[in-house]
Amino acid sequence: MNKIRPLDYVLAALMTAAGVFLMVENITAGDDPSLIHPVSTTSWLIIPAFALVTIPILWRRANVAVVSWVTAAAAAGHVLAFDWLTRCGVVLPLAFALGYAVARFARTRRDHVLGLAGIVALVVVILFRDSSADLAGALPIALPGVALFYGAGLLVKNRLSKRATTVPQPVERATV
Questions:
Q1: Do the Cβ atoms of 101 and 86 come closer than 8 Å?
Q2: How far apart are CA 161 and CA 70, in angstroms?
C-alpha cells in the first residue's frame, strides 16, 4: 500500500502544473485592481519554490499525516519568502485532495487527527497572505470542502474494506 501508484504521479503532476500556471500568472499579472492585496513579488523563484508545496502529495500513501505537515511547512516557507501572492487556486484543491487522502490512507486515529490538523494549518497559512482571497471570506468555504472530501474518502475506504471482507466463498456442489 505504501507504493507510489500511477495516479499518484498524475495527481502530483496536475497540482504542480496548476501551480506553475498560477505562479506565472502572479508574475505576469502586473497591478491588477481586482486583487484584495497587490502581489508582493514577481520573482521567477516563486515557481520552483511553489513546486515544494505541491509535490509532497506524491507520497500520500506512505504517511499522509507527515505529507500534510510537510505541505503546510512548504506553504509557510513560500508565504514567508514571497509574501502576498495568489495561491488559493491551487492550494485549496490540494487541501481537498489531502483531506480525501487522510481519510483513505491514515492508519490510526492519531494519523487522522494530525493529518487534518496539518490541512487546517495549510489552509490558514495560505489564506493569511493570499492576494485573491481573505481568511474570513474563504475559510468558511475551504474547511467544509476539506470535510466533504474527507467524508468521501471515508466512504470509499469503508466500501473497499467491506468488499475485502466479504469475498465470496467457493460454492461446494454436491455430486450425485
A1: no
A2: 28
pTM: 0.89
pLDDT, tens only, 91-102? 999 999 999 999
Give CA 92 to chain center in angstroms: 7
Burial class from Cβ neighbours inside 10 Å (0-12, 13-18, 19+) for residue 147 reads: middle
For residue 118, the surrounding DSSP H or E stretch is: helix 109-128
Residue 60, C-beta contacts closer than 8 angstroms, at least 6 positions apart: 8, 67, 98, 101, 105
Helix (H) or strand (E) holding 54: helix 46-54
Here the cell at position 43 is 520573482
Is pLDDT above 90 for 70? yes
CA dihedral 11, 14, 17, 23 (to 10 degrees): -80
